Structure formats: structure tokens, C-alpha cells
Amino acid sequence: MTEPKQPATAGPDSPSSISMNEKSDTYAAFSKEDFLSPDFRSDHINIIVREGIILGAGAQAILLQVANAGVGAGVNEHSNFAYRVQDRLRTTMTFVYCMSFGTPQEKKTIVDMITAVHKNVTGTLNEGRDKGKTYSALDPKLQLWVAATLYATGLPIYERVFGKITNEDLHEKIYREYSILACALQVPPEMWPRTRKDFWAYWDHEIATIEVTQHARDIAKDLLYLRQAPWHIRMLTPAVRLCTAEWLPERIRAEYGVKRHPRRYRMLERLVKATYPALPLSVRSYPVKLYMNDMRERLANKRAVIGKDA
């Protein structure tokens, strides 16, 4: 695949060389028709998602996602999470990277595969304050929440490493293009919060009201220790726990029972900030190449990309 392009001037506030999709709509979000157009460009979200460092926020994003009772039940009851953590990471990042870097046909193929899998993820909540209510992975509210966690975790880790994005125009374009991670599925454009202020109001409300159930705690135990994963993956779990504990909102962290270690975290953060930005973009963006090549090989060989058979 083509390597992700580097802006002409390095740094978080340098959009001058980036082609912009200037289409102005009633809503902040792009529709599925916009997104699948051959002319659609996602250069601004790509600034964030091409960076391999965002994988470091993966556990944080997953724990926030499954803190939504419907998402947590769907993951815990319809997947073998403890034994397939790597597969979940691969399928999630394949979706994100394909939506950002894929061709229109690749995007449509992956979206159709995900929708087919989601049709079978339904059930009735068996715990928590919403016990007895039904859930479905096709529910736009659940999909909106999952996409929101990707924006709310990916952008901050980028800014921790590269510095704050102070260019408001760039900020808005990044935010708008993140909507494709929701509206590519069943979320209608009008559901994506219109402004970043609206988004953070939505976010704060969800963080204040979501309920960490036992389903979510079971997933957290599997995710943060990865006892069934290969040894080379388990080696990363102490750093993952360190960062996840630091980045989770206080109430959510407390409900998961995850402990912070601020001094160790600061040491790790200083190390990453001193080394990661100096790496060539081809190295920093290697996960994009890895997962996109894997996706294309699977598609070419008519192998499953998403789902239990993947």
C-alpha cells in the first residue's frame, strides 16, 4: 500500500499541504454516500490514525466501550474475548484503517462484513439497572458510543506525544472526519454531535451515567492481563495497565478497580515523548501497512476479515 503522507511541515498544526474535503452539509458528519464517493478524502483524520502510538489507547477505548451495558453484553456473550484479544485488535484496527485509507470498494466490503456480523449480536441484558432490556449491535446509539471512544482516546494520545493542536480549523476537520467511524455503519449523520462542544457535552453525560457491569469487569480482567495471550503480547500488559489507569475517567477507573501509579506513568510518558516523534513516519505508521496488507491478502484469497471465522 501507499505509505501515509507526511505534511510538508512537521508538527500538529501544519495542514497547509493537506487537500481538504470542503463539502458543507447541514450536519457535522459525513453521510455514507459522501464517505463511499471516489472523491472523498480523509486527510485530516489520517494525521491521527496513521500514528501507531494510538494503539496504546486501545485498552482504554475498549474499557470505555464495554462500560456501555449493551456493548459489554454483546462483547462478553457473543465473542471469546479472552482467547481472541489479538483478533479483536486486528478487526478493530482493520475497520479504522480501511475507513481512513481504503478504496471505496474496500470500505463497502468491510462495512458489509461488519454489518453481517452485527446482525447476530443481539440479546437481553441480564444485569445492571437496564436488566431485561434488549440490545443489538446494530443499535445506532451503541455504534455512536463506540465511535466516540475512538475519537476521545485517539486525539488525546496524539496530543500527549506531539503537543496540542492549536489550529482550530484543523481540529474541526479532524473531528468531522472522525464521524466516518460512526456513519459508515448504522449511525445517521444527524446523530453525530454537530460541534466539538456538543461532542464533549455528550461525552461528559455518558461518562457520568454509564454503568460498569460485571460483563465489563470480566472483559477488563481478560484485557488488562491477557493470560491466554502469547508471551510476547503479555510482556506489554504492565505498560498497558499503567497507561489505561492514568487515562480512564476517575469514576470509570474506580468502578473497574484499576489503580494508578502516577510516578511510573510519568517516567514512561517522558520516555515515549523523547523517542517516538523522532522515528521516521514509515516506522510510526507501520501498523497501517501491516493491517491493510493483511486485509487485502484476506480479501484477495476470499478469506474472512471480520467475524468468528476470521
Automatic annotation (TrEMBL):
One of the Pfam families matching this protein, by short name: MPAB_Lcp_cat
Source taxon at top rank: Eukaryota
Annotated spans, Disordered: 1-21
GO terms for MF: oxidoreductase activity
ER-bound oxygenase mpaB/mpaB'/Rubber oxygenase catalytic domain ranges (all copies): 49-274
PANTHER family: BLR2777 PROTEIN, ER-BOUND OXYGENASE MPAB_MPAB'_RUBBER OXYGENASE CATALYTIC DOMAIN-CONTAINING PROTEIN
Protein name: ER-bound oxygenase mpaB/mpaB'/Rubber oxygenase catalytic domain-containing protein
Organism, as annotated: Neoarthrinium moseri
